[in-house]
Specification:
The chain has 23 helices and 27 strands. It is α/β, with parallel strands linked by helices. It folds into three domains: 229 residues, Spore Coat Polysaccharide Biosynthesis Protein SpsA, Chain A; 96 residues, Nuclear Transport Factor 2, Chain: A, CATH 3.10.450; 249 residues, Spore Coat Polysaccharide Biosynthesis Protein SpsA, Chain A, CATH 3.90.550. Belongs to the chondroitin N-acetylgalactosaminyltransferase family.
């Protein structure tokens, strides 16, 4: 019986793996059988008598014998041996900054707009406001420039208004500055309206290996019937290969070709020296254009040629340019909505064929299904709101006034809900909003912002009857297309200047800080320096000749400098009763170059290379400052209650929390701080007492236009300690310090367990 029970237990344990074992056995058996069959067939072919079989039709003799043909030499792998000349000195290979540069990639499209001094502030501005933000790079070229260049426009002036000279200088400038960076060059006039998205889509469907001269083909007056030039008013597209071949002949074209129109001159130059004529169709792509008549109403244009046009010409004034942009935007929007409807219909049809059937269709169709939490800790909570108040406030208060972006969001979503209801039920019913009874919203990272609204509506029929009813609607504001935000280039080689303010209360923790600094930066030769800031109380400063409260710290610094001969750790002594963070940084800032990257640390910080690298990468000069949220360990006496403490090897798993009340740590450049500090000084004038209520974070928040990057930092860990809060600081700073101490004691579960044990002990 015992043996049978053991056998049953073994079989039950192996039962989940039986399908896998059977599948592996069957697969191995079939592979062995197939290998034996193919081996036997190969032997029979080798031993079969008679002449060899003829090669396949069209195949070279070498291919019939199993050898690569004459056209396959380039596909054979070759091992290039590395050889270094011993007579030449070794030179370090410098890698490019971006991988696309090393691989030879180019940007897609460069756009040049030909303008003049007379139309620079009118038509050129209209072009810049309508299509400039759609093109990756756009420059304006003119002969003479006005005294003031419109904002947001990059202008190149050649000093001569002659049309042929302007075209000649423009082509030279494009080749010299952008010829090696872009694949396509689109040239247009300022009286041309171009559909930017259509032009960008066109170049994605054309091969960059051909010489392309694409536009609206026009005949030369009295010239060859076969030759064509591209009309400049409708824009034209040049490939990089054509520009490179054309550049050596531009001087000859300027001296030999006579023409009044710059587009004819360029077309004749390309035809005479390269033998390439303008085409309106290439590689299955059409360059559609539309010529505007006088007194044209863009809103009434319904012709297919107009709707399919990539470029429209001539545009006589700014108002017409804006009206064209509005009309084409509406046409493009209607196309997008129609594509969405077609895709949703296809999704419904395909989903009906799946095992889930029509029940598998998500709402809205094509949007990701709502996030399904796997535990109660992953549940996304809903925020309740009305038209006047929000009941989930950023500062933690239970109720706050609905204002700003939140108020605009609620108003827009209510209007959209009523509009959708009218679209569904008209003309039978007409809805109007009476009141928002209840509103709920939550952000789902997988799909976007979700809303549930209880609306009190008044429904009116066609006969004039009305009725008040309550209706619940659900809406989704889906996440739009994700875009990569361009950021300035930074490296991990930047030197970090650590600044450590020290008071008398911090003396017990300095030794641990210096040990961690030596182990993680000096021993690893990290590019980081340390400056100590000794903050003396006025009473201690008077007795510094007899008793220096920081003498022990200075002795530790001396020992470090002896151990590391190449390291110097300077210190700065400051006398003050109120150690304002801004006043201290003012002193440090004046003693360092403007390009210094500061890391403002605290004595409880454990410095490591991982965080210093993130400090370098997240801090960008004249762009972004970094305020990390450190990980604060809980009080071990409350967390472990006499048990063995967590091992130091568990790193992030140690019990604690991210201290969002602390702004003591910061990474920023000295130049950015000095700029913000100058604006602060102009605002407060001589009221230095204001600085006592401010931190460095407040200076950047209110007096700089930089990005403030505030994020949790798991690499910045602080051990538990009860910090002393200076009551002479501002009320807000003192309150934040007290909250940091209270929330840093332990988690709610740990505190509840401690109270429970205390009550148990008192009861006994």
């Amino acid at each position: 019986v015992a043996a049978a029970m053991r056998l049953g237990a073994v079989l039950s344990a192996l039962r989940p793996a039986l399908p896998l074992l059977l599948g592996l056995s069957l697969g191995c058996s079939l592979s062995l059988l197939r290998a034996s069959w193919s081996h036997g067939a190969a032997e029979e072919r080798c031993l079969a008598p008679g002449p060899p079989a003829p090669p396949a039709r069209g195949a070279p003799p070498e291919a019939a014998e199993g050898k690569p043909g004459p056209g396959h030499e380039d596909f054979r792998p070759r091992i290039v041996p590395y050889y270094r000349d011993p007579n030449k000195p070794y030179k370090k290979v410098l890698r490019t900054r971006y991988i696309q540069t090393e691989l030879g990639f180019h940007e897609r499209l460069f756009v040049a707009v030909l303008t003049s001094k007379a139309t620079l502030n009118t038509l050129a501005v209209a072009v810049n406001k309508t299509v400039a933000h759609h093109f990756p790079r756009l420059l304006y070229f003119t002969g003479l420039r006005s005294a003031k260049v419109p904002h947001g426009m990059v202008l190149v002036a050649h000093g001569d208004e002659r049309p042929i000279w302007l075209m000649y200088e423009t082509m030279n400038y494009i080749h010299q500055h952008f010829g090696s960076d872009y694949d396509w060059f689109y040239i247009m006039q300022d009286d041309t309206y171009a559909q930017a998205e259509q032009v960008k889509a066109l170049v994605t469907h054309l091969s960059i290996n051909q010489d392309v001269y694409l536009g609206r083909a026009e005949e030369f007056i009295g010239g060859d019937e076969q030759a064509r030039y591209c009309h400049g008013g409708f824009g034209y597209l040049l490939s990089r290969s054509l520009l490179l071949k054309l550049h050596p002949h531009l001087d000859s074209c300027r001296n030999e070709i006579l023409s009044v129109r710059p587009d004819e001159w360029l077309g004749r130059c390309i035809i005479d020296f390269l033998g390439i004529t303008c085409v309106s169709q290439l590689q299955g792509q059409h360059y559609h254009t539309y010529e505007l008549a006088k007194n044209t109403e863009p809103e009434k244009e319904e012709e297919e040629d107009f709707q399919a046009a990539l470029a429209v010409h001539p545009v006589s004034d700014m108002t017409l340019m804006y009206r064209l942009h509005k009309q084409f935007s509406r046409i493009q929007l209607d196309r997008v909505y129609q594509e969405i409807q077609d895709l949703q219909m296809q999704i419904r049809n395909l989903t009906a064929l799946t095992p889930a059937g029509e029940a598998g269709v998500t709402w809205p169709v094509g949007i990701n299904a709502p996030f399904l939490p796997k535990s109660r800790f992953e549940v996304i909570s809903w925020d309740y709101f009305t038209e006047q108040h929000l009941f989930s406030c950023p500062d933690g208060s239970p109720k706050c006034e609905l204002s700003g972006a939140s108020k605009a969001d609620v108003s827009e979503i209510i209007e959209s809900a009523v509009e959708q209801l009218n679209r569904l039920y008209q003309p039978l019913l007409r809805f109007s909003k009476r009141q928002l009874l209840n509103g709920y919203r939550r952000f789902d990272p997988t799909r976007g912002m979700e809303y549930t609204l209880d609306l009190l509506l008044e429904a009116a029929t066609q006969k004039g009857h009305s009725h008040v009813l309550a209706k619940r609607v659900s809406l989704v504001r889906p996440l739009s297309k994700v875009e990569i935000i361009p950021m300035p280039y930074v490296t991990e080689a930047t030197r970090v200047q650590l600044v450590l303010p020290l008071t008398v209360q911090d003396l017990d923790f300095v030794a641990n800080f210096l040990d961690m600094f030596a182990m993680n930066t000096l021993d690893t030769h990290d590019n980081a320096l340390l400056t100590l800031l000794f903050i003396y109380h006025p009473y201690d400063a008077q007795r510094v000749g007899q008793v220096d409260v920081f003498a022990g710290v200075k002795a530790m610094v001396g020992e470090l400098e002896k151990r590391y001969a190449e390291v110097k750790i300077p210190w700065i002594s400051v006398k003050t009763e109120v150690p304002s963070q801004v006043k201290l940084m003012d002193i440090v800032s004046k003693k360092h170059p403007v390009d210094t990257l500061f890391f403002l640390a605290s004595v409880w910080t454990e410095i490591n290379m991982e965080f210093l690298n993130r400090c370098r990468m997240n801090t960008i000069s004249n762009w972004q400052v970094f305020f990390p949220v450190h990980f604060q360990e809980f009080n071990p006496a409350l967390v472990y209650r006499g048990e063995q403490t967590a091992s130091s090897n568990t790193d992030f798993l140690r019990d604690g929390h991210f201290d969002r009340h602390s702004f003591a740590e910061a990474c920023f450049y000295n130049s950015d701080y000095m700029t913000a500090r100058t604006k602060l000084a102009a605002d407060i004038l001589d009221r230095d007492e204001v600085l006592e209520s401010m931190e460095v974070f407040d200076v950047f928040l209110h007096y700089s236009g930089l990005h403030l990057f505030r994020a949790v930092e798991p690499g910045l860990v602080q051990k538990y300690t009860l910090r002393s809060c200076n009551p002479r600081l501002s009320e807000e700073l003192y309150h934040r310090c007290v909250l940091s101490n209270l929330e840093g004691l332990a988690s709610r579960s740990h505190l509840a367990m401690a109270l429970f044990e205390q009550e148990q002990a008192n009861s006994t």
